Amino acid sequence: MQPLFQPLPLGPLTLPNRVLMAPLTRARSVQPGDVPQAMNATHYAQRASAGLIISEATQISGQGKGYAMTPGIHSAEQVTGWRLVTDAVHAAGGRIFCQLWHVGRISHVDLQPGGAAPVAPSAIRSSTQTYTSAESGLVDVSMPRALETDEISGIVEQYRAAAINAKDAGFDGVEIHGANGYLLDQFTRTGTNLRTDRYGGSLENRLRLPVEVAQAVAGVWGADRVGYRIAPTGTFNDMSDENPTETFTALAARLGAMGLVYLHVAEAFAGSVRDEAVMGAIRGAFPGVYIANGGYTGESANERIESGRADAVAFGELFIANPDLPERLRLGAPLNEPDRETFYGGDERGYNDYPFLEGSRAAVGS
Ligand code: PHB
Question: Which residue among the candidates 182, 228, 262, 354 is catalytic per the annotation?
C-alpha cells in the first residue's frame, strides 16, 4: 500500500489516510460580519475524503483580522456559520480542525475595530500588502503599534475564547497558526521581535507567548486535539530569524512536551526553499505527528513518509483543484489545474465547480 494510504492515529482520531487538506485562504465569507455560509460548507464537504481538513485561517478576534472577507470565529453568527461547515464535513465522513489566526502587524487600520493601528510585538512595519475590501485592490499594511506587556494576557484570552467557539461550532480540533509572519510568528522570530520585556529578547522570552497560547488552547481542547503550524525558514510577510534551527527546535520541543498532537510545517511557501537540515532538526525535536507541507506531489509525499521524514502531507493548491485528491493520488489519475484568478474572493466559480473523477461519487451539494 502507498504510505499515503496507511491510516494515521492522531490523538483520539484515526485518520483514514495521510493526504491532508492544508489551510487555504479563499475570502468567501458573507459580508458584513465575516460569516461562513452554505457555499463554504459545500466546498469543504466536497473535500471530506481528506485524512484531515484544516480550515482556512480564521480570525480569533476583530483585531486579528488582516484581509477582507476572511472568516472569523468570534461572533455568534460566525459560530453558526461554521456549524454548517462542520456538519456538512461530518455528514460526508470527514474530520476538520479550525485554524486559529491573529494576523498581528499584517493588517490595515480600515480592517481594525475603531480604525486602530494593528498590534505587533514591536512597531516595525512590514513592506507587504493586503486588501481591505473586494474593491480596494492591494494596499500597504499599516504601521503597527507594539503591544504593552499588560495587554498580552488579553491576546491569550482571544485565543482561548476562539478555541471555545471552535468547540461550539463542532470542529474536531484546532490548529494554532504560528506560521507565515502572523502574530505568533512575529513574536517567535528575531527579525520582528525587538521587545525588552519578558516577551522578547532571549529565545525563552520569544517563545513565551506561543507557549502561553498553546497552553490556553490545550486547556480548552486537550492537547491531543491541538496542532501548531510553523514556517521555520519562510520569508513571506518580511520574516527573518537569526537562527531558525535553534528557534524552531526549541519551540517544537516545548510544544511536544505539552503533548500537542501535531506540528504542521510549511517547509516551502511563497518562494522559500525547503531547508532539509532545518526540517530534519525540527522533526527530531517533536515527538508527535509531523505534517509536511509545501509543493509536494503524490510521489514526493509517499517518498517523504516512506523515508520517515514526515507522518502525513498537507496539500494546498492540489486540493483547491481536486476535491477528490486522495482518490486521484491513489489511482495515479490526472489532476485538475488550479485557476489562480479565482483563489481569493468571488463565488462558486473556481471554488465548488472543480470536477470529480468520472464515475466517482457525485459532487456534494450540486
Ligand atoms: C493569505 O491570505 O495570503 C494568507 C493567509 C494565511 C497564510 C498565508 C497567506 O498563512
Answer: 182
